[in-house]
Amino acid sequence: MPIGAKSQDEVLHVSVSLPYRNPEAMQVFVNSVSDPKSPNYRKFISPKEIGARFGASPAEVKRISDYLAGYGMKVHLVADNRLAILADATVSQAQAAFNTSIEEFAPIQGGMLVGPKRFSFTTAPNLPVSINKSAFYVGGLENFTQPKAQSALTPSQLRTLYSVSAAYANGIQGQGRTVGISNFVGYRLSNVNLEYSQFNLPTPSGGVTKNIIIQPINGMDGSTTAENAEGDIDIQTVLAVAPLCTLIVYDDGGDSDLIGTLTKEAQDNKADIISESYGWFSGDPSFYVAAHNQHLAMSAEGITYMCASGDQGTTVIDPTSKNFTPYPDEDPDVLIVGGTTVGVNGAGVRASEVGWTGSGGGWVVSTDPFNQLPAYQKGKGVPTNIPYRLVPDVALDSDPATGYQIYVQGQLQAGWGGTSCASPTFAGALAVCEQQIIAQGGLPKNSAGKQRFGRIQDLLYSFNGDATVFFDVISGSNGTLPNKNPSNAVAGWDTVTGWDPVIFSGFVNKVLAQSGGPSTVTFSPTSVLGGTSTVGTVTLTAAAPVGGMTVALTSNSSAATVPSTITVNSGKTSATFTVNTTAQTTDTTVKISATANGTTVSSTLVVQAPGVGTVAAAPSTVTGGTAATGTVTLNSPAPAAGMTVTLTSSSTSVTVPASVKVAGGTSSATFSITTKAVASNVSATVTAKHGTSTTSGSLTVIPATVKSIAVSPNTAVGGKTVVGGTVTLTGPAPSTGTTITLSSSNTGAATVPAMVKVASGATSGKFTVTTKAVGTTTVVTITGKFGTNSQSGTLTVQSPIISALVLKPATVKGISTTAVTGTVTIGSPAPAGGLNISLSSANMQVANVPQSITIAAGKTTGTFSVSHVGVSAQATISITASSGGTSKSAVLTVTP
Fold first, then answer.
1. Computed over its alpha carbons, how large is the radius of gyration of the chain?
2. Residue 143 has pLDDT above 80, yes or no
3. What is the mean pLDDT of the segment spanning 177-192?
4. Looking at per-residue confidence, does 85 or 150 come out higher?
5. Which residues have C-beta within 8 Å of that of residue 758, sequence separation ≥ 6?
6. 320, 328, 472, 894: which could form a disulfide with 334 (CB 3.0–4.6 Å)?
7. Residue ranges of E strands in 547-598
8. In whole angstroms, how far apart are CA 519 and each of 35, 443, 576, 594, 691?
9. CA–CA dist 653, 259 (Å, integer)
10. What torsion do the CA atoms of 750, 754, 759, 763 make, to the nearest 10 degrees?
11. What DSSP string runs through 679-701?
12. Residue 110's pLDDT is what?
């Protein structure tokens, strides 16, 4: 009943919860880092990264912080994940800020106070419109929401029962691992000293309890408040299994503010594993969402959070039951630990183990948005027709009848039990397992240097009840499920024991068998021509287990193909595979990944486009103005679509096309090279380029020179005929023209000009050959010269040709004294020194002529006398004049 207003000056510890900016994206991320099949597996992030990627905006956080400070509250934590703000406020400040009033209440019976006083707001907290969308839950304004302890113990034989003893005996006792406890009650660390002494536990560095860190949430220390067995149980059960771990007690100090505690744990990000032994009920659904948001954050950080399933069987999930504590049983991001009843002999060896009647199990029927069957929750025996989170996930001994021994109030007491014992025991055992797995390279560091399992449920369910990991409990029951069916332990998963007790040594072996994931994937060589192959090597973090390890391979480009899987043989740390490539038009960087056991490593391989091997011109020396043929040759065949190679020339005298295409599957292509006429030698570089591949070839362009000298006609009579000469070049003349020097081998017979110029662009030039009269036929060589090159042609200069021979008279009496005169006419004047004409008579006895006559220089005729004698009969006599291979004849008739 209400007993009055709460003191206005009393300090409250307030928590204000903020929503995720994108809750769906956050859930997808957490699922991916928790899924052993995901490439993102165990790539955990920090609280600041959570805030930056998924949390409320800095402006929203500041607006709420300023609002609280504006009412005089002392903000002592703005969580890095931007999901909560913790502040201290007086009652009056809280009432003003949240528009409510806070009163005290007390259970009174017969006028007597019969229980502790409580306080609560009398009207729901109300925030201004400007921030009520950013702050959806306010905690710390009431303490009616109390955790319900699930009583717990640690049996002395526990390490043997669940296969932790061998590791423990070998000194693996939690060193290097940090376990957290969410605590809401008082305890005494002096009980820990008694536990270490009684059970002969190894002493931590610095002494017993020096490995325990008390982390107050709101400045209160439970070790100084009234002792409650639950706090002692949680601490002692962890340390009984992992006595050398670092144990952080996240100490609520009695405020019962779950949100504040979870916020501090997520902000701290120091515990690898956290155990909680409480169940929660609140009439405000926002309370559950606020708690779940913090659990999502811890999953993203890689923290493994677990909680007791409860000790009232299926009534823990029955809203009609006074034991109804739906949270965190309904949260998929919390490992829920149920209970068994176990029988052991004196050495701790299992004689029997069945489902405990008190083991909390089943499902919570609620509309809380996260209370959905998670993707990881599948396997033999897991129902597929229930849409809610199913519990428990695993179970350990919880029945008080089995007799756990715990120090409470300085006394060793037996007969304690409950799933609250199972959860911290599981936490301690998991710490020992992690220590072993890390030592053998099975739990690599993430980018933040953390070696954690994170949300371990995904991994446990992936084992699908493996008999080497779980002891299958197939008997026992814990009540009636919401669908009215009995809740019984059966083969596989069930709502009494989940996947059943864990055989922790088997868990270590299983994880190690799966955790030797790839550490690197490399290639030799790291860059290859498309169409060739290279060798890839996958290296594991540890030797492959018995049976080998299958590694999945993927390529992000068709430029390089890899086998879908390779197997690293048992005991080996690496295996090789062949990477085949295809021809590419451009250099292509391919990402090739190797995945095994949730670990993915990648490396890049450069698949090169065919390089330009050579470029050459044929011929390599050409006369300017003429063409050559270029050939580009690749160092490997072009891809199917062909490959275009760009071309350039270093000289304007040499022109090449802008590009040439090498047909697919071939290695070369030709192109035309055109040149311009040049006046002197030009050395040009032709460059072929594709991508970063470049090569060059040279071409020498030389000036056109004399190809031939010709005269027409090539035979002429000296002094009479003017002959045309033609000089022909090997190519066009340059813009300045080409001057050819000329010479005659006999200027007495023929003369030429000193030079002839071939006009720009022309390939020939004309000149005149002047002949002179010669006494005998003379062959003259006409030579044209350019530089060191010369060509010649010949001209035959003939002596003058006898054009006529006339005898006067042509008939004469032989006995007469009539003089007969012969006249020889030549076609051109006689040369200097005259022209000798040979004469002959067919009958020298009748008609006699001189042996020769000479036509005087410059003259065209010459005469001679023919003497004759009498004849008895008429005689016809041929008189012939000859010179230079020509002759003329005349007939003299001599009569009686």
1. 58
2. no
3. 94
4. 85
5. 704, 727, 729, 733, 737, 738, 739, 740, 764, 765
6. 328
7. 549-555, 560-561, 565-568, 574-581, 588-596
8. 19, 12, 14, 9, 33
9. 84
10. 50
11. SS-EEEEEEEEETTEEEEEEEEE
12. 46
| Residue 493, both tokens | 């998963």
Neighbours of 576 (CB within 10 A): 12
- 441 φψ region: left (φ > 0), alpha (ψ -120 to 50), beta (else): left
Sole residue written with tokens 């029997």: 352
656 φ, ψ (degrees, to nearest 5): -125, 160
- Token pair 């009479």 is found at 720
Q: From residue 686, give the alpha-carbon distance in Å to each of 615, 668, 703.
A: 7, 16, 19
Distance of alpha carbon 456 from alpha carbon 241, whole angstroms: 19
**What are the residue ranges of helices labelled H in 440-488?**
457-462
Q: Are 591 and 604 within 8 A, CB to CB?
A: yes
pLDDT tens digit sequence for 186-234 = 899 999 999 999 989 999 999 999 999 999 987 777 787 888 889 999 9
Is 229 exposed, middle or buried, given 0-12, 13-18 or 19+ CB atoms closer than 10 A?
buried
Q: Which residues of 463-483 are buried (b: 16+ CB within 10 A; e: fewer)?
A: bbbeeebbbbbeebbbbebbe
Residue 587, both tokens: 């250099």
Type of residue found at 700: T
Burial of 580 by CB count in 10 Å (0-12 exposed, 13-18 middle, 19+ buried)? Answer: middle
By the 8 A CB rule, do 234 and 406 touch?
no
Site of tokens 């054009």: 803
Beta bridge partners of 739: 757
Amino acid symbol at 820: V
How far is it, in rounded angstroms, from Cα 94 to Cα 74? 11
Furthest-apart CA atoms within the chain: distance in Å: 206
Indicate the pairing of strand 518-524 with strand 486-488. Answer: unpaired
Structure tokens at 207: 């002494």
End-to-end CA distance of the chain: 194
Look up tokens 């009207």; give the residue. 123
> Model confidence at 390, in pLDDT bands (50, 70, 90)?
very high
- Rounded to two decimals, the pTM is 0.60
How many C-alpha atoms does 438 have within 13 Å on its Cβ side?
19
Specify the 3-state DSSP secondary structure of 183. Answer: strand
Please check the confidence at residue 345 and state whether its pLDDT lies above 80: no
The conformation of residue 300, written as its DSSP 8-state character, comes to H
